[in-house]
């Protein structure tokens, strides 16, 4: 599955998104007009033909997709007004397997590998439906096959534009966790309501699309026939916007009232979740109504006007700088705070169309709930999200700081989000993004870095040109609880470390590093998780020191990248020094390394130091270039070897009991990734040991009870992840 969804609890949300996208979640607002039908045979067709040999189609025929990934049909759709459209695709699939397709609107992905399952026969026609934001005037809607089977036969696209003024979303059509749909209480507006289970954590989650970012009112229609309040946490896109919103008794279960919160929504798709916070669960919930709030959009056209508006901003304000190029003579100071439900947003009127040059950019006071969005930042001097500030968001900016500024963006405050930015073209010493912390040794807490594009760091020195630095040597013993996920790195050549981790208790997962010198390196700190990253070409790999890390489900292929368990000059670092600490108790499991070099796994680096101790290397696949030792153990003590596979090379000095020499049957999929080619692979159901840390594979698919060896779990008809591209990250990504 192509992974483009940007929220903190990613694993949970990925599963939810799949369910929400394919479920018909149309708001109950009346349509502007009857659905308009666009025949597939009249659309633009790439790698497909118009056919008419299966009965039951409308129009003069249907499109028979060629059996290749990338074949598509693209319609041109006219909308009288901007709004949310329901897109219904008429199709037939006489095969027995799903033929998923990516659905994009105006070039932006709106449904990732939407399922088009078998309809039983080529003459049996069904529909699949998604909702998406459209602009006034001309829009393009494209359905692109994502597997080698191509798409189904496609008959038509029906487009139903929903009036944008009031959107109502029935609870019974949403995603429900620990609750049921009932209809035994009068007064509901749809076909039923959600009866929450009497447990903490039960929830209802809606997907809501809006055409323009801004402040919105969220009105929950509910009934509570008890005499006690049943509060719920309201979150939008994974961020809490209303803490224990009250849902007091309404007098009876047939008396319906409304509880309201205010929140900022992004243009396009948003998730809204109402989660019970007590053992009584939530109330009965009928629907969610989403309406434009009373946000104040302030448009300015100069730096002085921007500063003046920022100085008097109040929660909910959105200050937009008109398109153009602006030159500063000093910093733009942001000293006012928003709230969780109504942040202050400082934005370019159109993403990427307002450029700030000059001597400085934005500076933050000790503020909270402030968003900076959509700018091109080419000024001199870096941007710092400072200590004492919290809940700041830096999003959809292009960062190319001028001059010799060392570190371009620095996060020091807690609960900050850095997402959907492009960091590009740095040739001097320093990092694109660093996360530090207050005081002498602390770390910023819970930083979330996702869906950014890090491109072309070309510093030629021997050290100090990382793309991301997460901590510093003297902060390594502090826990940061940062999540770095779904970022794309290309030409990360400024250092041997593209992602340099120098703190504890972090997650680095689902990133794509392509054609880069830099690797993921756990240089300092303990208890970090490295999961599901794709390292393609170049010399990108994984290297680690210190203790208790988990390195699982990663794929390294197409270059000279390797996994390196480093050698320490000290056993344990208890003072925050710059010394290399010996790796202890690290789990390296269920990774796949396909390389053009020997020593795809290097354990210890020479024999003069302290080699890894009590580390486990289990159920990995190593495929070499044809000869040579694929595993090289220079030094180490109490190492555990179990269930590994070696092919096209030898196991070197790895204990013979720890591996098999057998062809795992890897194939290259449509996305260019090596994975298991069939269920008859000797890697299938042959993993040794239980390893409860490993519950899913690199595609985020659940592992079976008896796991497969390597990063990929073979699943017939399962979804497959593809490497991130520039369409999935950066300012223009969904």
Tell me the strand order in the biggest sheet. 23-24-27-30-33-36-39-42-45-48-51-54-57-60
Count of beta strands: 64
Low-confidence stretches: 1-32
The number of distinct helices, counting runs of at least 4 residues, comes to: 2
Largest sheet at a glance?
14 strands, parallel
Gyration radius, to the nearest Å? 27 Å
What is the rounded distance between the termini? 15 Å
Q: Give the overall shape.
A: globular
Oligomer: single chain
Average pLDDT across residues?
A: 90
Q: Which class do the helix and strand fractions yield?
A: mainly beta
| Fraction of residues in β-strands | 35-45%
Helix content: under 10%
Features:
single chain, 734 residues, mainly beta, 14-stranded parallel β-sheet, 2 helices, 42% strand, disordered N terminus
Topology, element by element:
Layout: H1 10-22, E1 36-39, E2 44-46, E3 48-51, E4 62-65, E5 72-79, E6 83-92, E7 101-105, E8 108-114, E9 126-134, E10 137-145, E11 153-162, E12 167-170, E13 175-177, E14 179-182, E15 193-196, E16 203-210, E17 214-223, E18 232-236, E19 239-245, E20 257-265, E21 268-276, E22 284-292, E23 297-300, H2 303-311, E24 318-321, E25 324-328, E26 332-334, E27 344-348, E28 354-358, E29 362-364, E30 368-373, E31 375-377, E32 383-385, E33 390-395, E34 398-399, E35 409-411, E36 417-419, E37 422-426, E38 433-435, E39 448-450, E40 453-457, E41 468-471, E42 483-485, E43 488-492, E44 497-502, E45 507-509, E46 512-516, E47 519-524, E48 529-531, E49 534-538, E50 542-544, E51 550-552, E52 555-559, E53 563-565, E54 587-589, E55 592-595, E56 601-603, E57 616-618, E58 621-623, E59 631-633, E60 640-642, E61 644-647, E62 659-661, E63 666-668, E64 674-676
Parallel strand pairs: 23-24, 24-27, 25-28, 26-29, 27-30, 28-31, 30-33, 31-34, 32-35, 33-36, 34-37, 35-38, 36-39, 37-40, 38-41, 39-42, 40-43, 41-44, 42-45, 43-46, 44-47, 45-48, 46-49, 47-50, 48-51, 49-52, 50-53, 51-54, 52-55, 53-56, 54-57, 55-58, 56-59, 57-60, 58-61, 61-62
Antiparallel strand pairs: 1-11, 2-5, 3-4, 4-11, 5-10, 6-9, 6-11, 7-8, 7-10, 12-22, 13-16, 14-15, 15-22, 16-21, 17-20, 17-22, 18-19, 18-21, 63-64
């Amino acid at each position: 599955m192509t992974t483009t969804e940007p929220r903190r609890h990613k694993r949970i949300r990925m599963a939810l998104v799949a369910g929400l996208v394919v479920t018909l979640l149309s708001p109950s607002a009346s349509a502007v007009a009857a659905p308009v039908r666009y025949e597939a045979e009249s659309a633009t067709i790439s790698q497909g033909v118009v056919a008419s040999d299966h009965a039951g189609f409308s129009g003069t025929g249907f499109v028979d997709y060629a059996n290749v990934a990338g074949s598509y049909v693209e319609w041109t759709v006219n909308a009288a007004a901007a709004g949310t459209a329901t897109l219904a695709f008429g199709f037939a699939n006489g095969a027995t397997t799903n033929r998923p397709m990516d659905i994009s609107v105006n070039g932006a992905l709106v449904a990732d590998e939407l399922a088009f399952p078998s309809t039983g026969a080529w003459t049996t026609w069904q529909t699949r439906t998604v909702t998406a934001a459209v602009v006034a005037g001309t829009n393009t809607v494209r359905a692109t096959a994502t597997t080698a089977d191509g798409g189904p036969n496609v008959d038509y696209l029906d487009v139903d534009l929903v009036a944008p003024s009031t959107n109502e979303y029935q609870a019974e059509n949403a995603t429900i966790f620990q609750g049921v749909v009932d209809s035994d209480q009068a007064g509901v507006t749809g076909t039923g309501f959600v009866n929450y289970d009497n447990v903490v954590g039960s929830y209802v989650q809606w997907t809501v699309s809006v055409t323009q970012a801004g402040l919105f009112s969220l009105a929950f229609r509910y009934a509570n026939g008890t005499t006690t309040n049943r509060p719920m946490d309201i979150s939008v896109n994974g961020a809490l916007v209303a803490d224990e919103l009250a849902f007091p008794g309404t007098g009876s279960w047939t008396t319906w009232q409304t509880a309201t919160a205010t929140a900022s929504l992004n243009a396009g798709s948003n998730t809204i979740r109402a989660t019970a916070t007590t053992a009584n669960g939530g109330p009965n919930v009928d629907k969610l109504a989403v309406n434009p709030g009373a946000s104040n959009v302030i448009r300015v056209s100069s730096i002085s006007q921007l500063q003046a508006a920022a100085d008097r901003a109040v929660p909910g304000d959105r200050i937009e700088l008109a398109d153009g190029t602006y030159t500063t003579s000093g910093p733009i100071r942001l000293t006012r705070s928003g709230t969780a439900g109504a942040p202050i947003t400082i934005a370019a009127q159109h993403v990427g169309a307002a450029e700030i040059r000059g001597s400085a950019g934005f500076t933050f006071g000790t503020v909270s709930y402030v968003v900076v969005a959509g700018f091109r930042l080419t000024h001199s001097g870096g941007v710092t999200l400072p200590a004492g500030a919290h809940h700041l968001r830096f999003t959809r900016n292009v960062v190319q700081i001028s001059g010799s500024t060392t570190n371009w963006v620095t996060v020091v405050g807690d609960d900050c989000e850095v997402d959907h930015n492009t960091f590009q073209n740095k040739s001097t010493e320093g990092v694109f993004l660093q996360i530090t912390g207050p005081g002498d040794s602390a770390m910023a807490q819970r930083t979330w870095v996702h869906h950014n594009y890090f491109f072309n760091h070309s510093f030629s020195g021997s050290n100090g040109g990382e793309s991301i630095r997460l901590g510093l040597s003297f902060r390594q013993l502090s826990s940061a609880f940062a999540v770095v996920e779904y970022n794309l790195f290309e030409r990360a050549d400024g250092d041997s470390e593209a992602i340099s981790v120098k703190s504890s208790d972090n997650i680095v997962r689902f990133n794509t590093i392509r054609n880069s010198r830099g690797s993921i390196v756990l240089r300092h700190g303990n208890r970090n998780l490295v999961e599901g990253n794709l390292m393609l070409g170049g010399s990108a790999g994984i290297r680690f020191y210190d203790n208790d890390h988990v390195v699982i489900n990663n794929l390294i292929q197409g270059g000279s990248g390797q996994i390196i368990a480093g050698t320490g000059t000290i056993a344990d670092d208890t003072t925050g020094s710059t010394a290399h600490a010996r790796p202890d108790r690290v789990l390296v499991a269920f990774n796949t390394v396909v390389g053009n070099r020997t020593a795809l796994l290097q354990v210890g680096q020479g024999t003069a130091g302290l080699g890894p101790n009590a580390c486990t290397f289990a159920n990995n696949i190593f495929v070499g270039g044809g000869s040579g030792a694929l595993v090289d153990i220079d030094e180490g003590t109490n190492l555990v070897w179990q269930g590994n596979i070696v092919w096209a090379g030898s196991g070197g000095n790895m204990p013979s009991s720890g591996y098999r020499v057998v062809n795992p049957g890897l194939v290259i999929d449509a996305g260019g990734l090596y994975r298991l080619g069939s269920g008859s692979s000797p890697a299938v159901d042959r993993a040794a040991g239980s390893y409860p840390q490993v519950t899913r594979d690199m595609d985020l698919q659940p592992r079976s009870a008896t796991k497969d060896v390597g990063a990929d779990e073979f699943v017939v008809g399962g979804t497959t992840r593809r490497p991130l591209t520039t369409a999935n990250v950066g300012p223009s990504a969904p």
